[in-house]
Write a structure and sequence with these properties.
Helix content of chain A: under 10%
Structural class of chain B: mainly beta
Oligomer: heterodimer
Distance between the termini of chain B: 38 Å
Largest interface: A-B, 29 and 26 residues
Number of strands of chain A: 11
Distance between the termini of chain A: 36 Å
Radius of gyration of chain A: 13 Å
Number of helices of chain A: 0
Shape of chain A: globular
Shape of chain B: globular
Order of helices and strands of chain B: EEEEEEEEEEE
Number of strands of chain B: 11
């Protein structure tokens, strides 16, 4: 079955460490997105990529980095520069330039800084 | 991006009650999407609306595309405990990178058995 997979589901990080969240899709979608969700809050866009080897900053990109070396994969690195990284992170994908059909979301990764 | 305002922000209802929520914008949208997010999971698309005035149902859920194209409504009839979650509206807008979705802040629904 086609879908979008995020791993791990739960992640713990010590302060000062970088950590990478995985996102893989087999939907043949060109566009991929990363969102951050804080408790009781909506979705805030971190980074997005419309095509391989290209990505754009979203509304809250500071302290995060991404890469898009393959169409299927869009990993997100939470760096030590992100001051408040504890949150629920959601990856999504879509047919490029056709958001009218919506995004497909993964099941999320909950990151906790300990 | 464009702003979508959802109301109410949260609802606490008794099982069996009907639920109504809405989403408004100062800009016109040509598509309205409604998502549901179960606790601890990613949002899932419930209903898509593509025409002003359109009324679309998905089981106990009914959504309407407002005539002004600046609002949309979602109704849930005879709520059950598994309706618990956050409901998001979304609509596409054009920016310099292409066609992107903007999301409302969500309506959190809690159902008391």
């Amino acid at each position: 079955d086609g879908g979008i997979t995020q791993s791990p589901k739960y992640l713990f990080r010590k302060e000062g460490q970088n950590v990478t969240l995985s996102c893989e899709q087999n939907l043949n979608h060109d566009a991929m997105y990363w969102y951050r969700q804080d408790p009781g809050q909506g979705l805030r866009l971190i980074y997005y990529s419309q095509i391989v080897n290209d990505f754009q900053k979203g509304d809250i990109a500071e302290g995060y980095s991404v890469s898009r070396e393959k169409k299927e994969s869009f990993p997100l690195t939470v760096t030590s520069a992100q001051k408040n990284p504890t949150a629920f992170y959601l990856c999504a994908s879509s047919i490029v330039a056709d958001a009218n059909y919506g995004y497909t979301f993964g099941s999320g990764t909950r990151l906790t800084v300990v | 991006g464009q702003q979508l305002n959802q109301s109410p922000q949260s609802m606490f209802i008794q099982e069996g009650e009907d639920v109504s929520m809405n989403c408004t914008s100062s800009s016109i949208f040509n598509t309205w999407l409604w998502y549901k997010q179960d606790p601890g999971e990613g949002p899932v698309l419930l209903i898509a609306l593509y025409k002003a005035g359109e009324l679309t149902s998905n089981g106990r859920l009914t959504a309407q595309f407002g005539i002004t194209r600046k609002d949309s409504f979602l109704n849930i009839s005879a709520s059950i405990p598994s309706d618990v979650g956050i409901y998001f509206c979304a609509g596409p807008y054009l920016n310099n990178a292409g066609n992107m979705l903007t999301f409302g802040g969500g309506t959190r629904l809690m159902v008391k058995p």
